[in-house]
């Protein structure tokens, strides 16, 4: 059923409303990534505040860390919330609408990626749809960057206050002192950092609820073409004759029969048409999240011995080192990777970008593993680590978000995107917990080097699944994509 109101969206010129939609829809991802990627920074402080047991490494340096079981639980609980949120809100997005679900998810501060992905896909035209969805997803990178910058700012302020009251140890006296006292207000610092993440979402809520429902949901799911045309009219000028033609077509007996004869989600017809796409999208998202979240949430493990010096000077020092490195990688690698995706995705396609990203991530991780074994060249180590994040974002971390938003029928789009994302977060749980245990030194674990090699193998598998099983969506309308047999 080719509705002219939807055709008008596919051929529309890029305009101010599209960029406004990117910001509004992307704020869920921004808030989510801010909250999630504060965790590795906050855990460094929590380890010093609540777990003051002194550990000793092979160099007899004293350091502090949240016990592995506690850290695993923290990561697992946060990511499990993402799994549940994506499944539940993805399904609700197809039942009650993208606008309502996204508003509720902002209020609840649960993962809002399901609603915002399908929102941008259904507002954009087919020529620049990939760039717009990638623009929404790039808000994740800015959330990561802001979490680091806010952490640096807050901890620097608290550290300056501690210095004034002589609660830190001068560097020249450090060898003779066991541990600096923990300032009582440090327990407030990490709470402030987390609470600040609520501000962007609360500022966006009003504008999101003023945003109209997507025309595709209104026309194809609710069967209200007149309202869909009115909503599109808020974005662009649409002749009344076009609206009337669509209303007349919807009201014909043949069209009504076609609309009532739609196959359900749990059916052989759905599996025949979309089963392979759903499986491929889910597997690719699963594989990239194993690597992406492991490397992000445990940067302090990866950097240990190369760039981060375990310190006993004060409660803020270790966490500030990690925050500065995380900000550096976000500025030099993570955010640029998103921008390159936005620029190139509608020219070279989703599948090529995803395959290239997986390939170079594998190469970087294998090389990182070799360098980690030797313990030399920390400058090369950080460059390769940055390359890994650049090619994850100019690659599968962005495209696994984009492709499920384009492949499926409007009435299943949020559900399928939610399933793919939930499977991805299961991969994040497995990868994060697996990395935490596997990266321990033998005989209790594999060690960091072998763990990096395993993740390189995961990326190689992602390249294989992408190349042989993932369908290209570039250049076609959403309705053309969903009707491919």
Provide a descriptive summary of the structure in words.
The structure is a single chain. It contains 24 helices and 2 strands. The chain has 485 residues and is an all-alpha fold. The protein has one domain: Up-down Bundle (Growth Hormone, Chain: A), CATH 1.20.1250. It has a two-stranded antiparallel ribbon with strand order 1-2. Helix 17 (317-348) packs antiparallel against helix 18 (350-374). Belongs to the major facilitator superfamily. Phosphate:H(+) symporter (TC 2.A.1.9) family. Its main location: membrane. InterPro entries: MFS_dom, MFS_sugar_transport-like, MFS_trans_sf. This is Major facilitator superfamily (MFS) profile domain-containing protein.
**Low-confidence runs:** 54-63, 109-117, 169-177
Rg, rounded, reads: 24 Å
What's the total count of β strands?
A: 2
Number of structural domains = 1
Order of SSEs: HHHEEHHHHHHHHHHHHHHHHHHHHH
Mean pLDDT: 76
Which band does the percent of strand residues land in?
under 5%
Helix content: over 70%
**What would you say the CATH architecture is?**
Up-down Bundle
CATH topology: Growth Hormone, Chain: A
CATH class: Mainly Alpha
Question: How would you summarize the topology of this molecule?
Answer:
Blueprint lengths: L3 H7 L5 H22 L1 H12 L4 E2 L5 E2 L4 H28 L2 H11 L4 H11 L5 H9 L1 H26 L21 H10 L2 H13 L4 H7 L3 H9 L6 H11 L2 H8 L7 H30 L1 H5 L13 H32 L1 H25 L3 H16 L2 H7 L1 H4 L5 H26 L9 H22 L8 H5 L3
Antiparallel strand pairs: 1-2
Helix pairs in contact: 2-6, 2-7, 2-8, 2-10, 3-17, 4-5, 4-22, 5-6, 5-10, 6-7, 6-22, 7-17, 7-20, 8-9, 8-17, 11-12, 15-20, 15-22, 15-23, 17-18, 17-19, 18-19, 18-20, 18-23
Subcellular location: Membrane
Membrane topology: Multi-pass membrane protein
GO molecular function: transmembrane transporter activity
């Amino acid at each position: 059923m080719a509705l002219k109101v939807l055709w008008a969206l596919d051929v529309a010129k890029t305009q101010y409303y599209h960029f406004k939609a990117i910001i509004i829809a992307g704020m869920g991802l921004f808030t989510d990534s801010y909250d999630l990627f504060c965790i590795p920074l906050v855990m460094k402080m929590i380890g010093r505040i609540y777990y003051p047991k002194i550990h000793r490494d092979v160099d007899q340096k004293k350091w502090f860390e949240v016990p592995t079981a506690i850290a695993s639980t923290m990561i697992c609980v946060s990511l499990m919330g993402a799994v549940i949120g994506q499944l539940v809100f993805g399904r609700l997005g197809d039942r009650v609408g993208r606008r309502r679900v996204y508003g509720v998810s902002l209020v609840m501060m649960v993962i809002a990626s399901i609603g915002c992905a399908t929102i941008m896909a259904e507002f954009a035209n087919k020529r620049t749809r990939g760039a717009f969805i990638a623009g929404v997803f790039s808000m994740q990178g800015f959330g990561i960057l802001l979490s680091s910058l806010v952490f640096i700012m807050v901890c620097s302020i608290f550290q300056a206050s501690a210095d004034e009251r002589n609660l830190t140890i001068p560097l020249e006296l450090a060898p003779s002192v066991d541990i600096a006292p923990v300032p009582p207000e440090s327990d407030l610092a990490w709470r402030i950092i987390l609470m600040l993440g609520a501000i962007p979402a609360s500022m966006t809520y009003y504008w999101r609820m003023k945003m109209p429902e997507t025309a595709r949901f209104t026309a194809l799911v609710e069967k209200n073409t007149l309202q869909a045309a009115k909503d599109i009219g808020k974005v662009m000028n649409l002749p009344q004759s076009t609206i009337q033609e669509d209303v007349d077509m919807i009201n014909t007996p043949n069209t009504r029969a076609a609309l009532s004869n739609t196959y359900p989600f749990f059916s052989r017809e759905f599996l025949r048409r979309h089963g392979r796409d759903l499986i491929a999208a889910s597997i690719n998202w699963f594989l990239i999240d194993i690597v992406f979240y492991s490397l992000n949430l445990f940067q302090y493990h990866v950097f240990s011995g190369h760039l981060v010096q375990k310190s006993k000077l004060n409660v803020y020092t270790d966490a500030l080192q990690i925050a500065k490195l995380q900000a550096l990688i976000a500025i030099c690698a993570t955010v640029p990777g998103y921008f390159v995706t936005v620029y190139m995705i509608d020219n070279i396609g989703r599948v090529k970008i995803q395959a290239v990203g997986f390939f170079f991530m594998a190469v970087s991780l294998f090389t990182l593993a070799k360098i980690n074994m030797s313990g030399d060249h920390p400058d090369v180590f950080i460059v390769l680590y940055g390359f890994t994040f650049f090619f994850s974002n100019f690659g599968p971390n962005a495209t696994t978000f984009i492709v499920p938003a384009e492949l499926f029928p409007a009435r299943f789009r949020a559900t399928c995107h939610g399933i793919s994302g939930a499977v991805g977060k299961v991969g994040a749980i497995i990868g994060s917990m697996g990395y935490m245990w596997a990266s321990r030194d033998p005989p209790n674990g594999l060690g960091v080097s072998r763990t990096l090699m395993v993740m390189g193998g995961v990326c190689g598998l992602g390249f294989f699944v992408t190349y042989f099983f993932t369908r290209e969506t570039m250049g076609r309308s959403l309705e053309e994509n969903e009707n491919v047999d």
